User: Which sequence fits this backbone?
């Protein structure tokens, strides 16, 4: 298993529920990104970690969204009080280091459906 | 805000023909561009990249052309195969110290056997 993995692959939540999405980056990768991809659209940046530090969270759509990477490896994206507009695929990507133009490796995503 | 966008949402190509996917970008400060391929149920996969100081770059069966004058990118796929069927995104990198990537909307490539 050398790639980025995400779990669960599919999540159905009732409106108002909290959800937690997990990302396991490639071992040793320093940088980690979360993206949100609506149906038929390109991924949109949510947040960026360098090791355990969250250096950019400018893409998080509201204060209901929270991400962490406490030990600099696994990351969790938490969405509180989910709304229907949160329905999307949530993608995680990692890169070896923070160098510019370093290839991002994406996981398969978690498809979140909020009813 | 600044964005990267595509001209055509869907492109149908006969197997064996060449495919050309186009993309316009709006930020003249962008200095690095990437093409991604996304198959159904998977995350985007890096295909090829190009820096703004180049106007052409070739890979295996793929070529990216960059026209900075008109802010236009294209991805050419030679001898298109059924396995090339996917959604293709162009993306740019604005710098800022890390790889903050902005994706376009995407073009769906359908290969007709």
Assistant:
């Amino acid at each position: 298993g050398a790639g980025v993995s995400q779990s669960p692959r599919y999540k159905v939540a009732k409106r108002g529920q909290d959800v937690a999405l997990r990302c396991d980056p490639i071992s040793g990768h320093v940088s980690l990104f979360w993206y949100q991809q609506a149906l038929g659209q390109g991924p949109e940046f949510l947040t960026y970690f360098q090791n355990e530090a969250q250096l950019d969270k400018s893409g998080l759509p509201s204060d209901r969204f929270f991400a962490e990477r406490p030990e600099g490896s696994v990351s969790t994206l938490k969405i509180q009080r989910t709304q229907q507009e949160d329905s999307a695929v949530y993608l995680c990507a990692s890169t070896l280091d923070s160098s510019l133009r370093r290839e991002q490796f994406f996981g398969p995503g978690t498809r979140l459906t909020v009813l | 805000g600044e964005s990267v966008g595509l001209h055509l949402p869907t492109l149908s190509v006969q197997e064996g023909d060449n495919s050309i996917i186009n993309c316009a970008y709006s930020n003249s400060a962008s200095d690095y561009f990437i093409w991604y391929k996304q198959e159904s149920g998977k995350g985007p996969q890096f295909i090829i990249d190009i820096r703004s100081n180049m106007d052409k770059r070739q890979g295996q069966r793929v070529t990216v052309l960059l026209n900075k004058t008109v802010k236009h990118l294209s991805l050419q796929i030679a001898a298109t195969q059924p396995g090339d069927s996917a959604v293709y995104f162009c993306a740019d990198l604005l710098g800022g110290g890390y790889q903050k990537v902005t994706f376009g909307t995407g073009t769906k490539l359908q290969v007709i056997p």
